[in-house]
Amino acid sequence: MRRLLLHASIFSVLTLLTQVGGIAWLLSLFARRRLIAFVLVYAVLTVVTVQVAPMFGRVPLSCWTGDTLRMQSGLYCVLNRNYVSPELRTVVHDLADHMSRQHPGTVTLALDGSFPFFDGFPLLPHLSHDDGRKLDLAFYYQDETGYLPGQTASPIGYFDFEDGPTSCWDTWKTMRWNLRWLQPLWPDYQLDRLRTKSAVTWLARDARVEKVFLEPHLRDTLQVGFGKVRFQGCFAARHDDHIHFQIY
């Protein structure tokens, strides 16, 4: 019974983390060297997923290649979190091309998109990101030497917060994690306001984009007070470490 509960727990966790990992674990149970079998089966399923996902209305964003647009980390691809609808992929490629033309040498980095299969399947810890219509983008950063192409302060693009005034309360009941203990670990990069403002402005003006989430203090600082640029609310994760946008 304990072994059954253990495997059921592993199946559930891997499914929630990667969507297809639970299936890979079940198949690996028939092998003598289970962990090796899991890695191999998971790799095969990942390759198959790329081919099958378009039948579910999802396509992957490029993982490691791309002069103007790519995933911020290969981790997102390993976990199958780099899938979006074909329409959203077109929009983000158009954004990246715009940024490259407007600011030569700019690399736009994508963070969480959606899983490859089934609308409504949660992409934890997000409250949305379950239909291929939403995508997070990393901020653009600079240091004393200037713009840092393809780099973020955090190794995963999230959790390097641009602190500012907020009307939300600091309580465990919300998803507004402060993670103050993490902040000293990040390099001393500054938000590239010029490029970040340019990206938000382009998204807000594109007719295909429904809304953009950004903390109010950043909306004011960057002077991007468009109707589509909205506050996500006090019960959602903070949006002063990345840009969230979604299409119609």
CATH class placement of the largest domain: Alpha Beta
Low-confidence stretches: none
Mean pLDDT: 94
What's the total number of strands? 11
Strand arrangement within the widest β-sheet reads: 5-11-9-10
CATH names the topology of the largest domain as Muramoyl-pentapeptide Carboxypeptidase, domain 2
- Roughly how much helix do the residues carry, as a percent range? 25-40%
The N- and C-terminal alpha carbons lie at a distance of 47 Å
Count of separate DSSP helical elements: 7
Radius of gyration: 19 Å
Structural class: alpha+beta
How many domain modules?
A: 2
The ordered string of helix (H) and strand (E) elements is: HHHEEHEHEEEEEHEHEE
What is the CATH architecture descriptor of the largest domain?
Answer: 2-Layer Sandwich
What fraction of the residues are assigned to beta strands by DSSP?
A: 5-15%
Characterize the largest beta sheet: strand count, sense, and whether it forms a barrel.
4 strands, mixed
The rough form would be described as globular
- Which oligomeric form is depicted? single chain
